[in-house]
Every structure is written in C-alpha cells, then in structure tokens.
Design goal:
The chain is built from 21 helices and nine strands. The chain is mostly helical. The strands form four sheets. The chain has a three-stranded antiparallel sheet, with no helix packed on it.
Length: 613
Amino acid sequence: MRIQPRQQLLESWRAVARSSFQKGTWVWEGRRQRNSISDAEQLLCLMGPATEVSTFKLDLPNETAEDVEHSLEAIGDSVEIPQVLMRVIHEYLTTYIDEEGRPTYGGGSYFTAAESGEPTEMQRALDVVDSFAISIRLSLAVIGFAKVFRRVLTRPNLRDEVRTIEKLASQRLTGAMIGLMRSFTVNVLDPESQEGLNLLQMINQARQPKNRIRLEFQAIVEEIRAGLRDVTFGLGEIPDLDNDNKVFECGWSWGITKGAPQVDTNEAGIHQPHGYALAAPYAYFTAVALDCMQHLFSERTRLLGLLDEEQQRLSRALQIRYDLTLSYWSKIARFGDSRWPLENVPWMTVDGSQSDYLSLLVSSMVVLDMTVNKVSNESDPVRIGQVLEELAERARITRRPISADDPAIALHLPGFPFQLDGSEEVDGPMLSWELADFSTQLLKQTLRVAALLNRVDLRNEMTNLIDEVWEHVTRRRIEQGPAAGLWDQPSAIYPSLPPSDEAASWYYSERVINCLVAAATLIDSPPLRSPALVAQATDLLTEADHIYDQELLRISADSGPSMRDALKSAGATLRRAHDVIRTRPGTAAALAAQVLVDLDRLSAARRDASGMR
C-alpha cells in the first residue's frame, strides 16, 4: 500500500501538536465551536495511536521512539508530553460535567436546524449517541494510558493527579455505557404499514410474493427475536415483539429514547435525563454504537483490567445488544439466495430514505460481523469489496464528477443530513445531523475487507482501492495556516465547492487518523501465504536439502576450513528457511535459492581442486 501509516501518523501528529499547542496553551476550537464530541475527537487524534499502535506509545517516557518524540516537540520532550496530555484530559473531563459534577454528553454545535432557525441551548445540551460512543473510546484510552503512566511517576502529587483523572474517566465511561443502554431500541412494524412494506421491499431482491418474503424474514430473525424478548435491562417491555406476524428492526436511536427507563446502577454520579429520541433505529448511530463497543470487549480492555465491577455488568448487557444487532443487520443486508439487498445500491430505510451513505453504513455493519465472527469463506468479503468499489465510483472518489453540480459531490459537503425525530419537543426547531465523512468511512471499511482476504490477488484488488481512496483523502489536506497538514479541504478536489475554513476539522481529521491506525494494524499482520509460492518454496527446499546432504556425504576429512564453514552456513540458512516456510514462503524460497547458489559454488570449487571438468 502507498499509505505508509507510520510516516503519515508522524506527519499528522506534528500538525496536531502545532495546531493544538500554541505558546504553552492547549487550543481547543477547530472548525466548529467546542462540544463534547469535537474536543474528544481532537484528543483522540493523539490518544488513539498512542494506545492502539505499540510503536507510538507515550505512557512510558523512556521507551518513546525518537521520531515519535520529535513529531510532538511542540508540546515538549518525552517526559513532558504525557504530563501535558494528562492536564489537557483533566480539563476535558471537568468541562463536560453539570453543576453536580456529573458527566454530560450534549451534541452542542454538531446539532443543526433541519430547516430554519437555530437550535436552542436546551437542544444543544441533548445527549447524543455520538458523544456516548466517542466517550467510551476516549475513556478507555485514558484509563489504560493513566494506569501505565502512573507506574513510572515518583512524585506523590503527580500520582494523585493521575488517579483523579482515572476516576473521572471511569465515571464518564459508566455514564456513556448507561446512555447507550437507554438509546437502544426495537421498532416493531406492521408488515402492511408503509414502513413495513419498505423493509420487505428492500430485502425482496428475488421478487417473491409478499407473504413468502415475510415468512422467510421471520425464519432468519427467529433467534434474534427470541433474544430481544429477554432484553429488558434499560429498555423495558417491547410491545408486539411476541407477534410473529410483525416485522421489526433493532439498533440505536440518535439519543436516549422517549420513555426509556432508568438503569439501576451503583454509580451515584451519573445523571439519567429524560429521553426525547424517536424509539426507532438510525443506521448511522447503530453503526457508531457497534463500532465503539468493540473497544469494550477488546483484548486490551481485558488485559489491562480497564472495567470495574459495575462496568463489567453493563458491558455484559451491552454485549447482548451488540450481538443481536450485529446479527440482525448482517442477515438483513445479505438476505436471500441471489443478489443481496446490500448490493442493490442505494440502501433504503423503513422511512423511505435512500442514499449511498446508507449503503456504506450497512456495509460497515456487515464487515464488522464478518470480522468479529471470523468469516470462513472469501466470497462474502469479495462481494462487499465490490459494493465498496461501486460506492467509490458513485461518490466521485475514484471517478471524476460528471459536472460542477454533480449531486454526488454533496455527499462530501455539506454531507448527508437526516432529521432527529423527537428533538422538536425540546423548545426549538427539528434538529438535523450531517454526515460528511463518506471518504474516510469508505477507506476504513476497505481496510477491514482487505484484512479478511487471504488470497494475494483478492487482497491486491482491495489495496488498489485503498490507494485510490487514500490519494483522494491526502488531496483534501489543508495546505496553509495553523492547521496545515490536517483536514479538511474538499474544494481541493471539487472546485465547485466553496473553500472551507482554514481551521482544522477535528471531525474529519480524527477519522483519517483512525484509518491510519487501521492501516498500521493491517500492515502489522502476517504476510499472506500464496499456495503457488508455498509450492515453489517447498520444491526449492527439497532440492537444496538433497544437494546439501550430498555435499556433507562427499566432504573429505582434509577439506579446508573455508569449505566446512560454507557448509555450516548453508545448513543454518536451510534451517531458517524451514522455520519460516509456513508464515513467509517467499522468504523461504529466497533462502533456499541462496543455498542452492552457494552449494553450486562449493561443488564447482571441489571439481576445480580435484582437476575434474
């Protein structure tokens, strides 16, 4: 791949440090006014790689890599950098709390009015799933970072400060988990209603009779329906779910749903406000919630013991929702025996909305299901890869726009908007949420699909797409001003768009850096094993072993030390080739070829010494 994540991450960190730390002070605001999501995105530009890529760790100053330290020199040296980060994180954690010190999760300036007017302050303070999700990611990163960093501190006051940060981050984590619990919903639909008809129409790619498609739907979701019947913790009773004649969908709404019950918890410092969100899943917030919960269930979280007893209880409850929702969307997207509904771009939701962005969101959930459940065949990831290729073309990422007013350009700016039903009940206009990260979402899913492919030719096709999307993303870098080297300037690719503010978009920049972390993970995985290459390496090793044994048999007692050393070296190289043939057949083939050349030289030297021709 042409991404080269290490070099790109170093450049991005240099730009983040230069933009965020000016004259000894952390500068929060980017392109939008401060809010709990944007500030967390800014912090995750540093904390994400520092806790997910081992060579970028900052919590052990003596082990900080030289080029990593150099990239953050605007903040300080290897000892000062983690201390500054801890102070800035403390500022974040004590900013987004109410008068009683309880964490808040408002969308703030990320809320916009759907039509006219401006959101009221009460509306801007509404809890939103995006804030819950990013708070889980940031809190887990902070708690793990603090646990490690605290071990190297010798001054008691510094250790106490770090413990305070751990406590605040843990409290924010608990609140975010409870918020996700109360935002989960199941929407039961009458199959004769317009919403029910839309759902059945979307999955009915084989043009089967309506009754038959409803019966097939019931069959594939039977276990999911049974599992949802037992989900009452933080959700309450679900009307009509027991009626098998009904269809349904499950996932996360945009915020705490209207009528969501309180979650019983031992954590006293958590506010559980009244909910206003429509009790129906949104594809975007469902995808965001599923993605963030991977961090709750990750190996890092388990090994470092990042969850306390109460959080483990909440995590188990969220795991049930996670498993059921992931299974539901994966089954719906791949419904039937012929063309998948997902392959019929664009995706249509039950309210009739259609967009390429919705297809991308549903693709992300299918890819996540394949990743989590270790898909055993490669045909399904290949089909998803083809959908992603089509979406890249339709979004004018790998194809040029048809015209200056090509409607596909709007996917990038202003983005894909959708209404937040229920928000108008809070003394103000209907709120809207805009998604303008199509290219980074596409890049992230393409990286994940590439990781699922074990055939060299198939992965090469995906890496070619990765390179094309990455080229698109790099061209959108800001080139001037304090945010130079960060993102986002879509007018650099689409001249018909107005130039964006020169301030950094932490919304887009964090997503790019998250993609670089995913690219680093992919590159760090073992290389693929081509069957043809394994066969070639095996043949070469067989011949090399045989000739080596012949040379050992023929060597005489009076052979010189140089010949004996050469044979000893050849034997060591052969043993190394045998050790790596299963994981690195190309290397084994090269080592075997090297031994064959060396043995041929020995044979020729022996013939010359004996006068044979």
